[in-house]
Amino acid sequence: MAKLIYITNASLDGYIEDATGAFDWIDPGQVHGFITDLIRPIGTHLYGRRLFETMAFWAGPIEGYPPHFQDFARVWQKAAKIVFSRTLTSAPPPDTRLEHDFDPEAVRTLKRQSPHDLMIGGAALARVALDADLVDECHLFLNPVLVGGGKPAFRPAVRRQLELLATRRFDNGVVHTHYRVRGGGF
Fold first, then answer.
1. pLDDT, tens digit, for every residue of 11-60?
2. Strand, coil or helix: 145
3. Shortest CA distance to 5 belongs to which of 38, 49, 36, 53?
4. Which DSSP category does 88 fall into?
5. How many percent of the chain have pLDDT more than 70?
6. Which residues of 155-169 are buried (b: 16+ CB within 10 A; e: fewer)?
């Protein structure tokens, strides 16, 4: 059975966006190649509207990106995408499906049937998946910055036991933490 994996960048105080909605404090540096390798085996990306609109940047012609970003664009374009939105009317990139509502049972079925792991992006969507006990693992990229408020990586009232599987420190101060969600999945 495939795993559902939550992957996100966050400030050290736990926010994915600051109070203005910006995330320009994220330093992709060495982390970008690591994330590319992390998502390479992912078969399907599940996105909320806002993150999908940000990620759609990667839908352009591969040769239009700087050489060090072309591999990420290639990997991102290869994966199927499901976008959950009540406001979008179409999802332009190829291999993208639009769903009006997040249906936990449909995601459970997708996990059972998928030959490849799935990732979920967007804090609001990840919260719904965590509440439904669908998330199996979390990859957090903690950036060495305090933003003091904004959109949290996790809903404040969520409570889950996590098992640390791995950590990695990058020279730019970013720390990657990889956790298994205990009791997650089915």
1. 999 999 999 988 888 888 889 999 999 999 999 999 999 899 889 899 99
2. coil
3. 38
4. -
5. 97
6. eeeeeeeeeeeeeee
The two structure tokens encoding residue 165: 């599987």
Q: Three-state DSSP class for 111?
A: helix
Q: Is 150 helix (H, G, I), strand (E, B) or coil?
A: coil
Q: How far apart are CA 13 and CA 117, in angstroms?
A: 29
CB-based contact 25:148 (threshold 8 Å)? no
| DSSP, residue by residue, 42-58 | --EEEEEHHHHHHHGGG
Hey, where are the domains in the chain? 4-181
User: Which residue intervals of 40-120 are DSSP H helices?
Assistant: 49-55, 67-78, 104-113
Return phi, psi of residue 82, to 5°: -120, 125
Answer whether 0.70 is exceeded by the pTM.
yes
**CATH architecture observed for domain 4-181:** 3-Layer(aba) Sandwich (3.40)
Place of tokens 């960048």: 9
What is the C-alpha to C-alpha distance for residues 94 and 34, in angstroms, rounded to an integer? Answer: 25
Three-state SS for 4? strand
E strand spans, the chain:
4-11, 15-17, 44-48, 80-84, 96-99, 118-121, 137-143, 151-152, 162-169, 175-181
